[in-house]
Amino acid sequence: MDASLRDAVDLARAVAVEIGGSAVGDYLGAELEDELVVTHSFATTDKAYVGWRWSVTVARADGSDEVTVDDVVLLPGAGALIAPAWVPWSERVQPGDLAPGDLLPPAPDDPRLVPAYTDTTDELAAAAFWELGLDRPRVLGLEGRLDAADRWYEGEPGPFSAMAKQAPGQCLDCAFRLPLAGGLSALFGVCANAFAPDDGKVVALDHGCGAHSETAVDTSQTAGMVVEDEELELVVVAPSPDDETPDGHAS
Ligand code: SF4
Question: Are 209 and 169 in contact (CB under 8 A)?
């Protein structure tokens, strides 16, 4: 390490104090950045910046004895409290975040969308998923369709949800299942049962629920009407005229 740069601690501290004032604390050491570039570090005593350090970079031109200050900056050290890395909103947005009135345009290079007529990325899939896309400039491509199929199948409309696992029957043979068109019809349909939790939603053929059209409940063991005496509410009623005696008293 260049000796004049290494020894420029007082200069570095003076510049740090110029910026940080009384918040400049103990000297933490020097670090070689380049042949004639050294960074001196000082702890900060500012309670709002625990774990941060003042970092002062000094340098010297080859052939010159003059040490100059390149940079003064407050940097986070190990254990410093720092903000999480910034994530663009387009990567942060989650399914279900969209509220009424919000706009969410797809990215210009959204891999799920392909121009209509040209979705031939995979020969087999193209046969199964091919779509003319009339009146639409783009259609959902193979990637977008497989994405949706995975998401639906692994999620609540799939066969692994608690509802499906306890269902007496599957959507496959349920009268309330409406068929889809296209390749996805091999695996999914739409539930049209007002009493099913999935009414109006896509359901996997091996999904199911207790409102399956062929659900049968054995009622042969059911007793007659059960009267809970303790649940009866007693009310006071006025005597009817028929109940009165000729002298005007209740009978
Ligand atoms: S009622 Fe239940 S079993 Fe029938 S289609 Fe809807 S979710 Fe599937």
Answer: no
Whether residue 7 lies inside any domain: the answer is yes
177 CA → ligand 1 middle, Å: 6
Verify whether ligand 1 is closer than 6 Å to residue 183 (CB atom): no
Asked if residue 57 is part of any domain, the answer here is yes
pLDDT, tens digit (0-9, with 9 covering 90-100), for 19-45:
888 889 999 999 999 899 999 999 999
Please write the tens of the pLDDT for every residue from 120-166.
555 445 555 555 555 677 878 888 888 999 999 999 999 999 999 99
Q: For residues 215 and 208, what is the distance between their CA atoms, to the nearest angstrom?
A: 11
Whether 212 maps to a domain, the answer reads no
This prediction's pTM: 0.51
Locate 59 and state its tokens. 């340098």
58 in any annotated domain = yes
Q: Does residue 188 share a domain with residue 132?
A: no
Q: Tell which one of 176, 187, 188, 215 to mutate to probe ligand 1, the residue whose CB is within 8 A of the most ligand atoms.
A: 176
Q: Which of 145, 169, 194 is the last residue before a domain boundary?
A: 145
Query: Structurally, how many domains does the chain consist of?
Result: 3
Does 177 sit in the ligand 1 pocket, CB within 6 Å?
yes
Containing structural domain, residue 60 = 3-76
Mutate to test the pocket of ligand 1, among 178, 193, 202, 205 (most ligand atoms within 8 A of CB): 193
Residues 6+ apart with CB under 8 A from 157: 188, 198, 201, 202, 203, 204, 207
